[in-house]
Amino acid sequence: GENVEQHPSTLSVQEGDSAVIKCTYSDSASNYFPWYKQELGKRPQLIIDIRSNVGEKKDQRIAVTLNKTAKHFSLHITETQPEDSAVYFCAASAAGGTSYGKLTFGQGTILTVHP
Amino acid sequence: NAGVTQTPKFQVLKTGQSMTLQCAQDMNHNSMYWYRQDPGMGLRLIYYSASEGTTDKGEVPNGYNVSRLNKREFSLRLESAAPSQTSVYFCASSEYWGSYEQYFGPGTRLTVT
């Protein structure tokens, strides 16, 4: 089945700096890569996703890049703000095989943005 | 729309006790999922229901059972709780099997002593 590794496990930045979180996946059939944000005590919420026919997707201050050859994808947050502090999870899902229809999550990154 | 709802929000059990976690969605979604979240391990799939009338095991099904009661409701049962089942449990739903985007409930924090 799919295996997703996420790094770093913790990330501390100053307000206004950029933050980058990276994930690698193992199943070459994976074609959907979402990112979820989870604030303390809250539910995970989808913030951006990318499909394998796209190399990069941007939504205001957040962007995701995908390198299918290397099997890795990254979340980029620019001009970070204290409200960006949360746990971020990457995930992967495949169009077929044993991973079809399921999300396999990375271990999570605790992002702290210091004012 | 309430989206995905879960009850209870918190629960403390003694080892060996049983309980059922309830989940309901009002988005007319076909697929539903149960995850557990443990520190440093992300979310791991326990069981899923691709459509009403079907259920299947995920990554960590041991010690759990599920029931897809109808299209709206998907319950998770712990028959004999163990301390290793102390976790936060999330229910999620998606429009159909393979539709990718999943919507999560607020979670149930379970402690087994």
How would you characterize this protein structure?
The complex is a heterodimer of chains A (115) and B (113). Chain A is mostly beta strands. Chain A has no helices and eleven strands. Helix content of chain A is 0%, strand content 57%. In chain A, strands 2, 4, 5, 9, 10 and 11 form a six-stranded mixed beta sheet that branches. A five-stranded antiparallel beta sheet of chain A has the order 1-3-8-7-6, with no helix packed on it. In chain A, β4 (30-38) and β5 form a beta hairpin. Chain A is globular. In chain B, strands 2, 4, 5, 6, 9, 10 and 11 form a seven-stranded mixed beta sheet that branches. In chain B, strands 1-3-8-7 form a four-stranded antiparallel beta sheet, with no helix packed on it. Chain B is mainly β. Chain B is globular. The mean pLDDT of chain B is 95. Chain B is built from no helices and eleven strands.
| H/E topology pattern of chain B | EEEEEEEEEEE
Low-confidence stretches of chain B: none
Report the major sheet of chain A. 6 strands, mixed
Instruction: Give the terminus-to-terminus CA distance of chain A.
Output: 41 Å
Average pLDDT score of chain A: 94
Number of helices of chain B: 0
Number of helices of chain A: 0
Helix/strand layout:
The complex is a heterodimer of chains A (115) and B (113).
Chain A: E1 4-7, E2 10-14, E3 19-25, E4 30-38, E5 45-51, E6 56-59, E7 62-67, E8 72-77, E9 86-94, E10 104-105, E11 109-114
Parallel strand pairs in A: 2-11
Antiparallel strand pairs in A: 1-3, 3-8, 4-5, 4-9, 6-7, 7-8, 9-10, 9-11
Chain B: E1 4-7, E2 10-13, E3 19-25, E4 31-37, E5 43-49, E6 56-57, E7 64-68, E8 74-78, E9 87-94, E10 103-104, E11 108-112
Parallel strand pairs in B: 2-11
Antiparallel strand pairs in B: 1-3, 3-8, 4-5, 4-9, 5-6, 7-8, 9-10, 9-11
Q: In a few lines, what is going on in this structure?
A:
The complex is a heterodimer of chains A (115) and B (113). Chain A is 0% helix and 57% strand.
